[in-house]
Design a protein that fits this description.
The strands form three sheets. A seven-stranded mixed sheet has the order 2-8-7-6-5-3-4, sandwiched between helices. With 388 residues, the chain is an alpha/beta fold. It contains 13 helices and twelve strands. Helix 2 runs antiparallel to helix 10, helix 3 runs parallel beside helix 10 and helix 11 packs parallel to helix 13. Bound molecules: pyridoxal-5'-phosphate.
Length: 388
């Protein structure tokens, strides 16, 4: 069997490789603590599960879903965007369900890129921003996010020839992997660039609900002119502990959503109606308290990890959002991957090497806070013992 040549264009998916390594160690009886993947350890909130149970029991959800989505889901997303972000959306044309943000982000590449086109991708960034364009025969061009610039890309540095070929731009705040929140004025600059060069701006909004210290994350669509040039992919995975449910929505520019729908009607048969109804329940105001309580848990873990790292001589600024700590690799290692390999071998702790998120992630590692406190403490203790 010969796989297509396009599969050779992409590196192995980071977490698939990590999962394999963990499995080998666990099979050998080693107590591995994974701080790698950002997959909440806590169950989906009870009110969402209860809504899903009711929806699954209703035969009206058992047929093929419509790719456009159920009115209840589209309406709930529109109401949430109004209440939460002050963004008005037409539920008929400006909201559509997605089978997780990952599906949506990948398929936008298929819908908008031809060979020779460019997708501008935040670096470091979620791997699909680069894997997607490569798989569809287009070219990802990296936009460096540097700590000294508040993890904002330098849009002026994008060469004119690249701007001309760019059809898509992927960016994400609050940011994975750096934990950064959107720098002042960046969304406005992105709107200007997208408008001037007919680029579809795709804001990946996977972490807006996980924030601390009073920070409230905005929607890109709240920026003047954003809806004319862009879409936002809103995921329920992290904020509602629903990673396994595959529930997300694309919102914003109606023409872009119509093209996404056109593509998807040839690829999949939509998001299970019962999950759409569970997603609608998640976005109701009654869930807000559960989100807040979860954020208190992540904040406690954030502080615990940042303090322990400081004790070990690694200084990090506690992030105001996301479920990640982004920390510099201690001196003496050839690369972030070499450090992470060392930590896995010597401490049986899985952390992610920054280089896996792009060349500008090199020199950093990422800790995910999606592990119970006692295991997180044990992991940090092991890291500290390694560095002493
Ligand atoms: C920035 C970012 N976008 C998208 C996703 C995937 O979201 P979903 O579970 O909705 O596919 C993740 C998951 O880690 C992420 O970090």
């Amino acid at each position: 069997m010969r796989p297509s040549s396009r599969l050779d264009r992409i590196p192995p998916y980071l977490f698939a490789e990590l999962e394999r390594k963990i499995a080998v160690k666990r099979a050998a009886g080693i107590d591995v603590i994974s701080l790698g993947i950002g997959d909440p350890d806590t169950p989906t909130y009870p009110s969402i599960v209860a809504a899903a149970e009711r929806a699954v029991a209703d035969p009206g959800t058992h047929g093929y879903p419509s790719n456009r989505g159920r009115a209840e889901f589209r309406g709930a997303v529109a109401d949430f965007y109004q209440r939460r972000f002050g963004v008005t959306l037409d539920p008929e044309t400006e909201v559509m369900p997605a089978i997780g943000a990952k599906e949506c982000i990948f398929n936008l590449n298929l819908a908008f890129l031809d060979q020779g086109d460019v997708a501008l991708a935040a670096d470091p960034g979620y791997p699909v921003y680069t894997g997607g364009p490569l798989l569809v025969g287009a070219e990802p061009v990296l936009m460096a996010l540097r700590a000294d610039a508040g993890f904002a890309p330098d849009l002026e540095a994008i060469p004119p020839s690249v701007r001309e070929r760019a059809r898509l731009m992927f960016f994400n705040y609050p940011n994975n992997p750096t934990g950064a929140v959107v720098p002042d004025g960046l969304f406005e600059k992105i709107v200007d660039l997208a408008r001037a060069h007919e680029i579809l701006a795709v804001h990946d909004n996977a972490y807006s609900e996980t924030t601390f210290d009073g920070y409230v994350a905005p929607s890109f669509l709240a920026t003047a002119g954003a809806k004319e040039v862009g879409v936002e992919v809103f995921s329920l995975s992290k904020g509602y502990s629903m990673t396994g449910w595959r529930c997300a929505a694309i919102v914003g520019n109606a023409d872009a959503i119509a093209q996404y729908w056109r593509l998807k009607s040839n690829i999949d048969s939509g998001l299970f109606d019962a999950i759409q109804l569970a997603g609608a329940a998640a976005l109701a105001p009654e869930t807000d308290d559960q989100v807040k309580a979860m954020n208190a848990v992540y904040k406690r873990r954030r502080d615990l990890v940042c303090e322990a790292l400081a004790d070990a001589g690694v200084n990090v600024t506690p992030p105001r959002a996301t479920i990640y700590i982004w920390a510099p690799v201690p001196p003496g290692y050839a690369s972030a991957a070499a450090y992470c390999e060392h930590v896995l071998e010597r401490a049986a702790v899985v952390i992610s090497p920054g280089g896996a998120y792009g060349p500008n992630g090199e020199g950093f590692f990422r800790i995910s806070l999606t592990t119970p406190d006692d295991r997180l403490l044990e992991a940090v203790k092991r890291l500290r013992a390694l560095s002493s």
